[in-house]
Amino acid sequence: MNIQVDKPVLEVHDLTVSYDKKPVLWDVDFTIPYGNLVGIIGPNGAGKSTLIKAIMNLVPKGSGYVKLYNDSLDNVRHKVSYVPQRESVDWDFPTSVLDVVLMGTYGKSSLLSRISKKDKEIAYESLKRVNMLDFANRQISQLSGGQQQRTFLARALAQEADIYLMDEPFAGVDAATERSIVNLLLEMRKEGKTIIVVHHDLQSAIDYFDWTLLLNTRLVASGPTEKVFTTELLQETYGGKLTLLSKIGDLMKEKQFPARENK
Amino acid sequence: MWIINQIVEFFSFQDVNIRYVALGTVLLGASSALVGCFTFLRKKALVGDTIAHSILPGICLSFIIFEIKDPLMLLLGAMVSGWLSVYIVDYISDNSKIKPDTAIGLTLSVFFGVGVLLLTHIQHSGNAAQAGLDKFLFGKAASLVQNDVITFGVVSVLLIATIILFFKQFSLISFDVHFAKTIGLPVRTFEVILSTITVLAVAIGIQTVGVVLMAAMLITPAAAARFWTDKLKVMIVIAAIIGAVSGLFGAFISFTAPSMPTGPWIVVVLSFIAIGSMLIAPKNGAISKIRKQKKNQRKILEDNIIKLLYKLGEKENDFFKNRSITTLKSYREIPTNKFLKGLNILKKKNQVAMVNDLWVLTEEGKTAGMRIVKIHRLWELYLTTYLRIAPDHVHEDAETIEHIITPEMELKLEHLLNFPEKDPHNVNIPYKNEKNNNE
Amino acid sequence: MSDFWIILTGCLAAVSCGLLGCFLILRKMAMIGDAISHAVLPGIVMAFLFSGSLDSVPMLIGAATFGILTTYLIETFNKKGGLQKDASIGITFTWLFAIGVILISLYADDVHIDQDCVLFGEIAYVALEPLISFFPGIGAPNTVWVLGIVMLLIIAMIVVGYKGLYLTTFDPSFAASIGVSTVVWHYLLMSAVSVTTVVSFESVGAILVVALLIAPAATAYLITDQLPKMLVIAALVGVISSFGGYYLAVWLDASVAAAIATVLGIEFTLVFLFAPQNGVLLKRFKP
């Protein structure tokens, strides 16, 4: 079940990504349609984070390519927003919510330029949308998990992008915050944005996403959520690693074998 | 030649002084290396640096309080402040938002600053007995006297004995602290013992190499040894040997050029051994990685050529026709010199033969080629079946994996897929001893 | 008058180091700063050997080169060599420092640049340097000019590059995602550390440089929750230690550099125990 889309906003073609020569993503190939709320689902260690990082060119690719808006990432960066996992940042850092959100405006002008009034306006707007305007001058060390996540979201909004890639935005967040974030994402989708979310919970996935990717080192399925959420496909996703594939991965690491012949 | 005379004179160990110096540095090198293995494995390699900088105030205070340059008293002072620094580093990072690396840098520089404050105070106060206190900073093995060596010897033996006695426990807390806790091991106690012997090793080692370089005596032998083995017991022995040899070399240098500080030479030797190990060590070394990669490239080349010959045979229904390189090249783009290299290797393996200027498959070659083609097609089927990859996307993957699948995996594949006859593109999968292959 | 120059020298070094140190500790690279401050030694010696003088410019070039080399080696040993991070740092700086010491004892033993000096510096020598004057009426020892210029450059770098430094320190993944090169900013920072280290050597020595890089920043980190304030406070803490250290050294007849480091320790301890939000003792007694 790998439903292809004619004019995809995101195209991932035969992507293999290795960590220390051991493949963690194997021949992943899919297309995503515009204006959808997409979920990437799979067990721990399935490579979901790695997939997003590979799309953002944050990790090297062993094989394959990624196209956004039928172009390479470097040409369309202003349209793409990446929200990393919350743990990727040290929340003891001496900075305020507003300063973090302002980071979202950095990509719009030279890094050496001063922060403009327009930048500040955008930041405040974004904070308003996530209901964090009152926290603008709060130090991030004083935030709860949900507030931290909303700060990250506000930063993403400040980027004013068209496609958003979010890594576990609901991890460690209380139910009320989760609800409000989902509502925000649905609003954004109504505005025509595409949002791709790495998600850890099966139950809610059915409610939230229009389109789902089932991933376990390889792509198990990609398509509209109702079509993809079958018992058979879910069992395959969560049914443990493919033994032979795993063995071959180990062998590749031991022999320092390249992911593709010509590399 | 002067240098040969020096070597002979030194290594004959006839001079009593030389014996002491050599023995001292060897013991120091070995015992620091042993202790260093554990701090290395616990990823606390810079603790040695911390302790080295932190023992100075203790030594100076001891001198100020007791007004005597007795090595034992100084050692005691060193132990106290060294131990205190380790405790403080942990305390600071556990009880504030200050991160471990900052806590280490902060502690070592402040302690050392206090130490130098006391040291310069002592020096300027004109107390004659303090001469030589500053050798703690740079180390001069040549000035080791009998008493010193006896102290070192005793301490080293103590260290080695402790490590042997508590080897199991130290290993456990170095590899898997959580597991150790769950089985009820008093982790804290053993951490304290480990810290204590580390402080002890540093306190005596400093006199050979000085403060700044002491960290190297602990870390570098361990790091070097790590590249050669995955087994802890072997690792500590290798590390100890590296430490001892480097110590001896340092003593030698000090002997030939008494004005040269010993420490740096020991560290330079250690570093070369470590960097060398990084490059050449068989399993984990960089050069071995490159060698493996070259080997892979060779196999890929041979496989591709033999596979090409087989597939041409399949297509033209004639496996044993003579073919020219030009013809072959028209089917698969490989530079001529590489092609020739590959063909010649295959010829040596008796998988191809050369007839005039043409190349032909042998019976063995046919079998070899068939195997690769079979694996390629089996793997494609595996990808489409188990990984649900579309048939038009599996070829490139199989082009790579066909080179790596072992006979064992081949068997597994056959069973998993139930001896299939056709690949995803509806092409025949060739098995040995099938009627249609026996022409 | 000589007190003034000595204290001023300390202040200038303190401000430069304190500012850079804030970014170092926030990037969890305190020990890399420590490593660089030791590893630049061979660079200094080689600069001296090639240029035949103790002039600042060749020294700076030697230092910057070895600072970059250190950064590069640590990365390479770690990423390509498969050596763990802490060991990569330890092996790199001890090796380079050892080479530096050997070079000194082979070629430069008789010169002012000797081991003791490099480690401790002797800030009091500043008072003995002839006054140099670029502007009528304003004369200062050479060291002060150099330190002053470096300090101004560092302040300029931080002001102009604030966004980049802040971004790449706080969230390198996000930075990379918007196309900012974290590598460039990393090497920029490390080069600045190398240069600062070396200009400070002559007056305050290697050990004090490490203390100045880390202690004021760590102290400020416990006092405030805002980066701009942290930078200012770090500079202030350093300046206070310069005054305090000088008078302590006079009282005890000891090394000024060491005294400054000691005062830094005292400042840190006080803040660690009593700081309003983070002080340990205060936290214990909170209702």
Describe the protein:
Chain A has 263 residues and is α/β, with parallel strands linked by helices. Chain A has helices at residues 48-55, 73-76, 97-102, 117-129, 145-158, 175-190, 202-208, 225-228, 231-238, 243-255, and strands spanning 10-19, 22-32, 37-41, 63-68, 80-83, 163-167, 194-199, 211-216, 218-224. Chain A has 10 helices and 9 strands. In chain A, the strands form 2 sheets. Chain A has a 6-stranded mixed β-sheet with strand order 5-6-7-3-8-9, with helices on both faces. Chain B has 2 domains: 18-284, Orthogonal Bundle (ABC transporter involved in vitamin B12 uptake, BtuC), CATH 1.10.3470.10; 290-434, Orthogonal Bundle (Arc Repressor Mutant, subunit A), CATH 1.10.10.10. Chain B has a two-stranded antiparallel ribbon with strand order 1-2. In chain B, a hairpin with a 2-residue loop joins strand 1 (352-355) and strand 2. In chain B, helix 2 (16-41) crosses helix 11 and helix 14 packs across helix 16. Chain B is elongated and about 100 Å long. In chain C, strands 1-2 form a two-stranded antiparallel sheet. In chain C, helix 3 runs parallel beside helix 5 (85-107). The chains are: A alpha/beta (263), B mainly alpha (439), C mainly alpha (287). Chains in contact: A-B, A-C, B-C. The interface between B and C is large, with 61 and 62 residues.
Write a brief caption for the model.
The complex is a heterotrimer of chains A (about 260), B (about 450) and C (about 290). Helix content of chain A is about 35%, strand content about 25%. With about 260 residues, chain A is of the alpha/beta class.
